[in-house]
Amino acid sequence: MNASTHKPIKNWVLGLTGGIGCGKSTVSAMFEKLAITVIDADIIARQVVKPHSHGLAAISEHFGAQVLNPNGSLNRAQLREIIFADTAQKTWLNNLLHPLIREKTLTDLHSANSAYVVLVAPLLFENGLEQYCDRTLVIDVPIAVQLERTIARDNTSEQQARSIIAAQMSREDKLNRADDVIDNNRPLAQVATVIQQLHAQYLALPAKK
Predict the structure, then answer these.
(1) Which pTM value belongs to this model?
(2) Is 23 annotated as a binding residue?
(3) Which residues bind ATP (predicted)?
């Protein structure tokens, strides 16, 4: 459902989520190939801290030059180390970024024109973004697969990968809250077939008035 404090979003929204390393980007790209608008909260999170943005200025003022690269961009690895070692700093950062991300997300949702729109957010449930969604879809893989993919993709340690997974909502809780689930621990051709089937179901749902 949509929050009553904002004007209604004109087309219905599919919230797509899953833990780190579950393959959300791969699945969302398949929806894009079906001419569905995809709004990715991770991309928006990068946009609100780009050079010369209000978000980056506030971060550099709070944490100092150590979180900036020589070219003035955000040093994400350094910031990640700080906030995972200090809960208070993580809370400060979340309090800064979440409203900025939410505002940009709502702007993009209102401007989408496809039959429905996919909102991709790793913390969809944790950050209350499901309130803007009409259905939710969880991309699911076993935790061992999450670890393997995250370590390989991000060149991070197993300890840090485990810390990131532990900081997210549990796999079980996500599955319990989902309207739909895709098992992404199988060949991509099989995943694509499931998405085609879901897409047909979504197109058949009544349009929002």
Answers:
(1) 0.83
(2) yes
(3) 21-26
